[in-house]
Amino acid sequence: MNFKKILILFLLCYSFAAIADDGEVIVLNSSSGELNFDGVPNELFWKSAQTFDLVMHSPNFNSSPQESSTVYMTYDKNYLYVAAYLDYNDPNNIVATSKKRDEKSKNPDSFGILLDTYDDNENALAFFTMPAGQRIDYAVSNDAQMMPGMFGATSQNYSWNTFWDVKTARSEKGWTVEMRIPFSSLRFQEVDGKVKMGLLINRTVSHCNEVDSYPATDPKYGILAPCKPSLAQTIELNGVKNSKPVYISPYVTTGFEKNNELNEAETEFTSTEDKKLTGGLDIKYSLTSNLTMDLTLNTDFAQVEADDEMVNLTRYALFFPEKRMFFQERSSIFDFGLGGPSKLFYSRRIGIDEDGNTMPILGGARLTGRVGKWDMGFMDMQTQKNDITPSENFGVLRFRRQVINTNSYIGAIMTSRLSNENINSYSLGLDGIFRVFGDDYVQVNLAQTTDSLGNNFDSSADNLFYSVSWERRTEEGFAYDLSYKYAGENFNPQVGFMSRFATKGPRVTLKYGWLPGVDSKLFSYNVDFSAYSSYRVVDNKLETGMYGPGFSVFTKKGWFYKVDLNYNKAGVDEAFDLDDNVTVPEGEYNYYSGRLNLMSPVSKPVSTSVMMSAGEFYDGSSVSVSFTPIFNLSGSVQLSGYYNYSHVEFADRDQMMNAHVGRLKFLYMYNTKFSLSSFVQYNSVSNFTVSNFRFRYNPKEGNDLYLVYNEIRPTSSYFNDDLEKVDFLNRMFQVKYVHTFQL
Fold first, then answer.
1. To the nearest whole number, what is the mean pLDDT of the chain?
2. What distance in Å separates the CA atoms of residue 298 and residue 276, rounded to the nearest whole number?
3. Which is it for strands 477-487 and 464-472: parallel, antiparallel or unpaired?
4. Is 178 helix (H, G, I), strand (E, B) or coil?
5. Which of 72, 335, 585, 605 could tie 83 with a disulfide, CB 3.0–4.6 Å?
6. Which helix (H) or strand (E) holds 527?
7. 3-state SS string over 426-480?
8. CA 580 → CA 11, 266, 300, 583, 718, distances in Å?
9. Mean pLDDT, to the nearest integer, of 314-318?
10. What is the pLDDT of residue 327?
11. What is the rounded distance in angstroms from the CA atom of residue 648 to the CA atom of residue 658?
12. How far is residue 360's CA from residue 366's CA, in Å, rounded to a whole number?
């Protein structure tokens, strides 16, 4: 299929997408007068506020909630206000096991809202809290469609933070909430003095595993249905103006770092020590209510938690999510998917080398927001050279706009990577997603890259990528996902992430799901069949294939079970190593395997998830078991762990590998401002342990004090007989303080 045919298909999808009705709009009342912001909404200020009634989302959709809620929403010229009375038949049933900022656990009770600030039915900003009164905010993208969990990516970005306030209080019947969200922290579009946003309201009640929502969100849209912007109620505000503040956030950091590194011959260690005292600056400026400019100078990410250790039993690169704050706001605008975890733009290419080591970022700029009917994003970052990598400039420009109906978009993207050694690369992309009818969506992606010298930007299939998919998004009844993708031999996005290069092939998933209703102990269950084939472009031979059925069950008490049986095919064109002693030779392989996933109810004080897989593996066998226990010990202490054991054996070749990955995390929360966290990770394949200790004092958004200590220690297996042992490979201690001024 050539470039012209893809473009014709793209335009046909555009032409036949159905037109959708905008639906009812609720006009909010504004309020005036005094507000004692103490978490108890008992002032006259709330009398004119709009009230909302919640309905049960789960376990019994559209039923009356077991615990009653009264929710208020109003606004004035500066803030959007939200309040709630969250009552219980027995207040002793309140579950308050966390004070953590951006708590992800579903164990404590919670309340919050999601705002689709542009009313675009795809993106939203979430503002939540729990009985302790902590701030939990995150960004939702891709209409809360789940991404593949094995790659660590979802449609909820908890690394996004903004400026807002919340207070909670206990009452005789339960607990109460007041939220105050500055309009300067929201990005919205004003038309004729009116601002329209999508609204979702959610409450979780842990003791009975209940989720209540407004508006009613049908569980057929999946586990994240209460977070889907396309299901939101449109609200209207009048006379709202953005104050366009300027936030200036200087930081200072000091500390030391020591390294013991092996020389190239791996015969001895070279020790280095670096003492640091430096600073930098971040500036956030709202150019308009739609556009925000972020500037950064001498950017530092010392406080960011290390990536989770993993064992890779594949031929392909592992995907790690972005955790750095500067790249978070409206980051979804830069998304351009290439199938699975692959992306045309991957911000971790900036300031992180191929081995995961950080590189100094001299500075950069980012502009995100809306211009007319177009969502737009622009970013330009400059990194500093080191002994291996030259100084580089990374750029990305992205535009998207809603077309035909409220669930359809077209977009374009351009990326660049420029080196001071004249090694340059560019990419271009065109994409569209179209809701053609009901819950059916068609998505078309077309992209092209140059070579490493920035040449050959033509229509040759060698540096072309395209994908086409047709998907029905529902958990009830018949659903499917049919797709085909092609990546040319020379297609290589230098500012992106590719798990597999130069491959093509179809993927088919067929599924039928049931929502058995009030009388059943099951919330949902489904059966599915998946078939995936990937062929190498260079010789048209099979690279990988996986085919088989699956079955999953989700109970009303919160248990989840999933079983998959697979027939696998693999064509290995080049032998690859699993570790120093185990190699998979070149050849063609056919083998069977199975996988079991189990999750216990997250609403309980102790919960866990277990994954087991076993079966044939190339010309041998493998067994893998992992479990992730979480202990919510109290409102101040959380303990979690992770352990994975993988055993691979090739009996005919007398090769065997046992891999262990362990992780233990501890969190102490004195209150919502002061926390101590630590973790220890062990990886038997890498033969080292990683430990981290972090103290954080966060009196208010934008003001942070961090004390961070990291250490990488080798195990005895790290050393050969002739190598002198060292106590550590890396040891780092840093103190960082950030203070934000508003002008």
1. 90
2. 13
3. antiparallel
4. strand
5. 72
6. strand 522-536
7. EEEEEEEEEEEECCEEEEEEEEEECCCCCCCCCCCHHHEEEEEEEEECCCCEEEE
8. 51, 15, 35, 8, 12
9. 88
10. 86
11. 7
12. 18
Taking phi over 0 as left and psi of -120 to 50 as alpha, with beta for the rest, 548 belongs to left
Structure tokens at 724: 């002198």
Task: Give the helix/strand (H/E) hosting 659.
Answer: strand 655-669
Distance CA 379, CA 367 (A): 6
Q: Judge whether residue 739 has pLDDT over 70.
A: yes
Query: Which of 6-15, 31-40, 547-556 has the weakest average pLDDT?
Result: 6-15
Cα–Cα distance measured from residue 619 to residue 613, given in angstroms and rounded to the nearest whole number: 17
SS3 call for 120: coil
Which residue carries 């470039």 as its tokens? 3
Distance (Å, rounded) from C-alpha 81 to C-alpha 396? 36
CA distance 280 to 273: 22
At 1 the pLDDT is 45
Residue ranges of the chain assigned to CATH 2.60.40.1190: 31-238
Place of tokens 């009230």: 51
Beta strands in 134-208 (DSSP E): 136-140, 156-157, 165-170, 174-182, 190-191, 194-205
Topology, domain 31-238 = Immunoglobulin-like (2.60.40)
pLDDT digits (tens, 9 = 90+) for 229-287: 999 999 999 988 877 789 999 999 999 999 988 887 778 888 999 898 999 999 998 88
